[in-house]
Amino acid sequence: MNTAYLARVAFGYPAIDNHAHPFLTAANRNAIPFEGLVSEANPSQGLLEDAPNTLACFRATGQLSRLYRLSVEPSWEAVKAARASVDYEQLCVRCMEPTKIQCILMDDGLGGVQELAEGYKWHDRYTYSPTKRIVRVETLAEGILAGLLDTMIASGRVDPPKFVRLMVEDITKAIQAAADDPEVVGFKSIACYRTGLDISLNSYTEDIERSFMGIVLRYEMTKKLRLSDKPINDMIVLTTLRIAGQCGKPVQFHTGLGDNDITLKLSSPSHMQPIIKAYPQTKFVLLHSSYPYTREAGYLTANYPNVYLDFGEVFPFLSAEGQRGVVRQVLELAPTNKILWSTDGHWWPESYYLGTVQAREILYEVLSESVKHQEMTEAQAIGIVKRALFDNANKLYNLGLTPHVANSAFEH
């Protein structure tokens, strides 16, 4: 069965990248090991050295060799040498033009962004529609808490009840201000990394005060702050869910795939069922395909009207066969009007390129196979592509965009 029109849409339709992070600046283009492009392994433990030996890296090497028009035998070292020889602006353009990303929703709260990366608006030069922000609430809260701790330590007065009250008030005000900001289209929580997705619905002042004292002691000794105390982290998430539900802005959750800072068994979105039920007016976005818990995520998406499933980050971290398996699992149960795509692009423009090209390839392969088996029509498959790449995110985040196409090639 001919699926030529499906291919045209899958490879050429405009896309909304519903979750990504900033590029490194030109000055910092080599500040982070490039192997992080294809692996979440922790570089401080030497694990990135294994990345070039994965099927994911073999595939990325071939694709980037073609992008850079290398005439030599594809190799990871040749790819790194080629990109190093290209002017950074030209490199960014070469990577972004083929993606046909129309709009990026950017989480600019990733660690290292302020020191190493461009501001979110800088990325507008590569998209037809303006970049919008996703506010990472733990990063927002850490900034507020650091200011309070500096004030408290400078005053020489340790008054946990008072400062906990101020902390809660200030965090609530900051989240509300973000909710009121038209540049902000959603929130993001990394509770998965910090304390796990088994978020408690009960927030007790006594537990928060005890956690606060532990934070004070660590901060006095190290002058470093990383919120990883469950009572406080859970309070931040619950506050976000309440305000987000009132303002109609979705909350993204990191689920599944990540580095070894995650407790794997607590990264399954199945732990979120109680908060999903408790906040029916709040829209939850389960990020990163929830891999390896994709089926659990699909189950939640199918059974709760306020849950949406993002099938990102597996491009390019998984092998092609692994990616096909994930997309098939997403489509097993999840309604196709509730699935979203993202690159999880970060640091390198190549992460946006691979995250887009591979997703389009796999989406076409899986859907064309279903069409050929007469499990759906080509028109139905085309509808899935348009919803997954553009329409669903446009509606969920209330972006009000129209797909930007050069001609009527996608009107069928």
Automatic annotation (TrEMBL):
GO terms for molecular function: hydrolase activity. It comes from the Eukaryota. Transmembrane segments: none annotated. Residues 136-374 form the Amidohydrolase-related domain. InterPro entries: Amidohydro-rel, Metal_Hydrolase. Gene3D superfamilies: Metal-dependent hydrolases. PANTHER family: AMIDOHYDROLASE 2 FAMILY PROTEIN (PTHR43383:SF2), NODULIN 6 (PTHR43383). This is Amidohydrolase-related domain-containing protein. It comes from Steccherinum ochraceum.
